[in-house]
Amino acid sequence: MAAVEIAGFAERIRIDTQQAHNETENSVFVSELLEGKLTVEAHAELIAQSWFIYDALERIGRTYADDPIVGPVLSDDLLRIPALEADLEFLIGDDWRNRISPLPATEAYVQRLEQVAASSPEAFLAHHYLRYLGDLSGGQIIRRMLERAYGYQRDGLRFYIFDGIPKPKPFKDEYRAKLDAAPLDAAQQQAVIDEAILVYGLNRALFQDLAGNIDRYRVRA
Ligand code: HEM
């Protein structure tokens, strides 16, 4: 009898969250941005909201450095705050800190991260996986589309450029091997998947909040 190949945990997360990914991928805000239909202010607003999220993600990540579940996936090469700050300086100006504020969906996202930080490394793992593997996957497509639509080179696009990860594919393969090796029992594995689906929802809600202001951002014909 042929051996039945059992999918690893990384493959299971990918399959079990595929529907949530597809529902998140096609937002009006991101589609119009990538088609060049929105102003630079719209891109700046997306980067500003991302700054609040990664500020919490990376601050909480540091507290998990010695955790057996989360510790192995942490990598300085992933950290996005320096890139986000350089983009905000370029897109908004030196006084960007005084000119950005979180949308309600961003506040809810950060609140969820804080909640998870206090209680569950496996849920935090879902947050980490979703953002960074997403940035190294669809994020790279977004980078090329923004380049084409707005003529950015590196400035304004640094969030999508991982200087320490010249080739995303081997990095992502290694990340998935770490997910496979994470010391999680069945209930904890399910908790990762449940949280990942919830986090896709938080990202969808953010795109909806951004779309609420879309008229303000439309490029006038
Ligand atoms: C324009 C929007 C998007 C496009 C075109 C896109 C496209 C893709 C593609 C092609 C992959 C597969 C890459 C591979 O197999 O190596 C992927 C993976 C992924 N994307 Fe997206 N994506 C988008 C938006 C998002 C968003 C908004 C998120 C989360 C907030 C996200 C999270 C992920 C994750 C976590 C993976 C890795 C799945 C896995 O292999 O486990 N994506 N995306």
Q: In short, what is this structure?
A:
GO terms for molecular function: heme binding; heme oxygenase (decyclizing) activity; metal ion binding. It contains twelve helices and no strands.
Care to describe what's here?
The chain is an all-alpha fold and 221 residues long. The chain has one domain (9-217): Heme Oxygenase, Chain A (Up-down Bundle), CATH 1.20.910. The chain contains 12 helices and no strands. It has helices at 9-16, 18-25, 28-34, 40-63, 81-91, 96-99, 104-119, 121-135, 138-150, 168-181, 186-211, 214-217. Helix 2 (18-25) runs parallel beside helix 11 (186-211). It is globular and about 55 Å long. It starts with 8 loop residues before the first helix and ends with a helix. The structure holds protoporphyrin IX containing FE. Residues 13-14, 21, 24-25, 30, 130, 133-134, 137-138, 141-142, 172, 203 line the site of protoporphyrin IX containing FE. Keywords: Heme, Iron, Metal-binding, Oxidoreductase. Heme b binds at residues 14, 21, 129, 176. It comes from Rhodococcus coprophilus. This is Heme oxygenase. GO terms for molecular function: heme binding; heme oxygenase (decyclizing) activity; metal ion binding.
What is the molecular shape?
A: globular
**What is the tally of helical segments?**
12
Secondary structure: number of strands: 0
N-to-C SSE series?
HHHHHHHHHHHH
Termini separation comes to: 65 Å
**Overall CATH architecture:** Up-down Bundle
**What structural category do the secondary elements indicate?**
mainly alpha
GO molecular function, one term: metal ion binding
Protein name: Heme oxygenase
InterPro entries: Haem_Oase, Haem_Oase-like, Haem_Oase-like_multi-hlx
Binding site for heme b: 14, 21, 129, 176
